[in-house]
Specification:
The chain is built from five helices and twelve strands. It is of the alpha+beta class and 194 residues long. The strands form four sheets. It has a five-stranded mixed sheet with strand order 5-12-11-8-9, with no helix packed on it. A three-stranded antiparallel sheet has the order 6-7-10, with no helix packed on it. A two-stranded antiparallel ribbon has the order 1-2. Helix 2 packs across helix 3. It is elongated. Bound molecules: fe (ii) ion. The site of fe (ii) ion has 7 residues, from loops. Fe (ii) ion (FE2) binds next to loops.
């Protein structure tokens, strides 16, 4: 984590929970004046207060520090709403049933918003018995390549990692697959609906 909690974040979270400065102060055993100082940038809460402060605001310390207040809107865990996160520094791929705060290499990762597949990132899915044989006509150089294919059904995810200089192909069990994804390291995430 490369920054500390800011006054603007404390104020935003406090106000969204309809708490006064006094009410927040009482919950963490400080004065209303102390909260007012933090919110106006005249001081920071002591590090020992981060946990009680986060708890009083109903979030985790990591969310408090990042300033992100993330709610998972997919509580029924519909797999078709799976979110993908990719670290731009190390290429780490994270998939999550709902929105969550994922951080890698010191960066808070936003969920990738898939675009409809364009001409350069189209996915060809051939039926081969009980599988889809998936290919993409796309460069596979070190600088610009398909980093993964994924097939998502209502029950789960199949993900195949690809590498530069390798073939842009994958095989997925067809069973119930409703979405195919292709991720290009330069152009991002694209999807096709089956
Ligand atoms: Fe690309």
């Amino acid at each position: 984590m490369n920054r500390y909690v800011t006054g603007a974040v404390i104020r935003r979270l406090r106000e969204s929970r309809k708490m006064t400065q006094e009410e927040l102060a009482e919950r963490i055993y400080v004065s209303g004046k102390a909260v007012s100082k933090w919110e106006t940038g005249q001081g920071f809460p002591d590090i020992s207060l981060l946990e009680p402060l986060a708890s009083a605001l109903g979030i985790s310390v990591i969310e408090l520090l990042s300033g992100e207040d993330i709610k998972n809107a997919n509580r029924s865990a519909n797999m078709l709403k799976t979110k993908f996160y990719v670290c731009p520094v190390c290429g780490n791929i994270i998939q999550s049933t709902g929105e969550a705060l994922h951080s890698c290499c010191g960066i808070t990762l936003p969920p990738l918003e898939p675009e409809a597949a364009d001409a350069e990132h189209t996915i060809c899915a051939e039926n081969v018995e009980d599988e889809y044989y998936v290919t993409a006509d796309h460069p596979m150089t070190k600088e610009h390549y398909i980093s993964f294919f994924a097939a998502v059904s209502d029950q789960g995810i199949q993900l195949v990692k690809l590498y530069p200089e390798g073939p842009a192909e994958a095989r997925f069990k067809k069973s119930r697959v409703q979405r195919l994804y292709v991720y290009c390291n330069r152009h991002g995430l694209f999807q096709i609906k089956m």
